[in-house]
Amino acid sequence: MSTAIATTAGDLRRLAGRALRHEARTPDALMVNIALPVIIMLLFVYVFGGAITTGSSGLAYVDFVVPAVLLMAGGYGAALTAVSISREMTGGMIDRFRTLPISGWVVPAGFVVASVVRSVVATAIALAVAIALGFRPSASLAEGALVLVLVFGYVLAVSAVAALWGLFVRSTQAAEAFSFMVIFFPYVSDGVVPAETMPGPLRGFAEHQPTTPIVEALRALLLDQPMGNAGWLSAIWLTAAVLISVPIAAVLFRRRTVR
Amino acid sequence: MHTDTEVAIHARGLTKSFGGTRVLAGVDLAVPTGSLLALLGPNGSGKTTTVRILTTLLAADSGTATVAGHDVAREPVAVRRAIGLTAQQATVDDLLTGRENLELFSGLYHVGRREARRRTAELLDRFGLGDAADRRVSTYSGGMRRRLDLAASMVAAPRILFLDEPTTGLDPRSRAELWTVIRELLASGTTILLTTQYLEEADQLAARIAVINGGRIVAEDAPDVLKRQIGSERLTLRLSSAADLSHAGAVLSAGGDGGLHLDAGRCELTLALQDPDHLRRALDLLHGAAIAVERVELRTPTLDDVFFELTAAA
Ligand SMILES: Nc1ncnc2c1ncn2[C@@H]1O[C@H](COP(=O)(O)OP(=O)(O)O)[C@@H](O)[C@H]1O
Ligand SMILES: [Mg+2]
Predict the structure, then answer these.
(1) Boundaries of each ABC transmembrane type-2 domain copy (chain A) (predicted)?
(2) What is the pTM of this model?
């Protein structure tokens, strides 16, 4: 049994390595992954930053917006997993993999692992830019570790849901739409403008959607803001996203490959 | 009846429908161990569907198949261990180099890193890709890509190989190179099921040819037997009028030529030559009946002729 697990882990590593190589060899994808976090951060701090007040939090705008931009930077790349998987399922490679003595689900899982690695790096780039622009986190070492866990959980959850979406849709265009959904969420959260400034229904959505507690938890960890129940809510949202999407993705994968 | 050690691939009554359209209507095949069977048929005749069922990628609606003695539906894993597949669609990774592709597949067969490297180098060499090994596959020519695909199928040294239209779209030189490689694999004892749209390819490589049309095997025999049935060369005569065409048809039929094919639209008549002297006899008959021939064309039979012949006979 343990050798079977070791074998599967080896397969996963090989396929994730292949997916990362794809990344490194597709200049536009690489550009998006490195440039996008930088551009979004510059945009928010310099273009929007002057016009937006941070409401009751009393934070400088750069401090206020950094957590949301971190989620955009990591989430956008993670969402592209839908595109990689969709492409793989409609191309010929999947047939080759299916005739190999490996578990089929390792193929989409390889993309998810690669996506997590790449998205954590993208988030780190965004954070580095933020610091260059004057963002000064006050996190302790332990808080820093929790930030890493939260970012990791977020990109894993987005990648897992993206995998589900990529297995569900039948065209690459439809798979691409997922990135826009993911990048839209942090906009309508408490992350870019304070939710208290939004009109009623939007405010209700902003206060209850998943990226709001994640942004608040990041803010609490990075900037000594009150945590409230944001930490628990984040943990519940992220765990639920992973636990629900993985079995559904597995069923979809079987549906796509059996018959 | 064959036993499983003599027959590497055995299919009985395979049927498959996609959304109400019947694609396979009962396919029977037997490929003796160590031989090459060509599955010859036009586009859409069910070749790929048959290969996908035999390689465990698709489930048949009814019928059974064993590959290397294992049932494809009940023991897919055992079947996969025994086979290699070069699918019609390219199944190598464009963004990786040839070497990286083969090392990836070797790794996924769990052969160990050193062994994977050794096999990869050997396969690259054997398939004439040594010089291009460290270039990305996206820079390969069609023929090189096909050879890499074939090499990827040979990573685990399978005893049974499925090649789905391996030379479609290749230039004549690449095709000849691939034929050489296929002959070598056959010589080393591999059992091969190859699909093709080219009669010439089947004739060059196969011990037996199964002709598939509309999801049904319409003929199966040794190439020589089939070719004798189909006739050797095709003679096409262009006549000047529709009246001449029907007259010529009547004259030649009376002279003993069966299997005439009249194309009224093009005012052409085609017949299969039984022997070289047949050409002279046919022209003499027409001359005797004072029918002017506008154009004469001789060509080797194509898949179309095979179908005309086989369906006319049935
Ligand atoms: N997944 C599918 N869904 C619907 N129709 C299919 C599918 N696969 C093949 N077909 C149809 O089945 C027929 C046979 O296809 P195929 O086996 O690919 O033929 P060949 O390989 O001989 O060209 C074609 O008409 C094709 O359109
Ligand atoms: Mg085909």
Answers:
(1) 28-256
(2) 0.83
> So what's the ipTM on this one?
0.85
Verify that B149 and B49 share a domain, yes or no: yes
CATH code of the domain containing B294: 3.30.70.100
Is there a contact between A172 and A75 (Cβ–Cβ < 8 Å)? no
Best residue for ligand 1 mutational test, from B14, B18, B86, B165 (most atoms within 8 Å of Cβ): B18
Q: Measure the CA–CA gap between B116 and A178, rounded to whole angstroms.
A: 38
Alpha-carbon distance of B88 to A108, in angstroms, equals: 23
B275 and B132 in a common domain: no
Q: How far, in Å, from the CA of B54 to the mean position of ligand 1?
A: 15
**B203 and B282 housed in the same domain:** no
Is B46 touching ligand 1 by the criterion CB < 6 Å? yes
Alpha carbons B111 and B156: distance in angstroms, whole number: 9
Which of B167, B199, B227 corresponds to the end of one domain?
A: B227
Q: Is B196 in the pocket of ligand 1 (CB under 6 A)?
A: no
Distances (CA, A) of A95 to A14, B51, B99, B103: 17, 12, 20, 18
Q: Do A96 and B89 touch (CB under 8 A)?
A: no
Beta bridge partners of B31: B9
Residue of A nearest to B149 (CA): A96
Number of domains in chain B: 2
Q: How far apart are CA B180 and CA B59, in angstroms?
A: 33
Same domain for B223 and B288? no
> Look-up: residue for tokens 């070497």?
B99
Distance CA B272, CA B255 (A): 14
Cα distances (angstroms) measured from residue A163 to each of A109, A175, A185, B38, B201: 8, 9, 18, 40, 42
Q: CA-CA distance, A77 to B187, in Å (whole number)? A: 50
Enter the tokens of residue A108: 């989409």
Distance from CA of B100 to the nearest CA of A (A): 9
Per-residue pLDDT of chain A (259 residues; tens, 9 = 90+): 578 888 899 999 999 999 999 988 988 877 877 788 788 888 888 887 777 777 667 777 888 888 988 998 889 888 989 999 999 998 888 989 988 888 888 999 999 999 999 999 989 988 998 898 888 888 888 999 999 999 999 999 999 999 999 999 999 899 999 988 888 888 888 888 788 788 888 888 888 889 999 999 999 999 888 888 999 999 999 999 999 999 999 999 988 887 5
The answer to whether B81 faces chain A, any CB pair under 8 Å, is yes
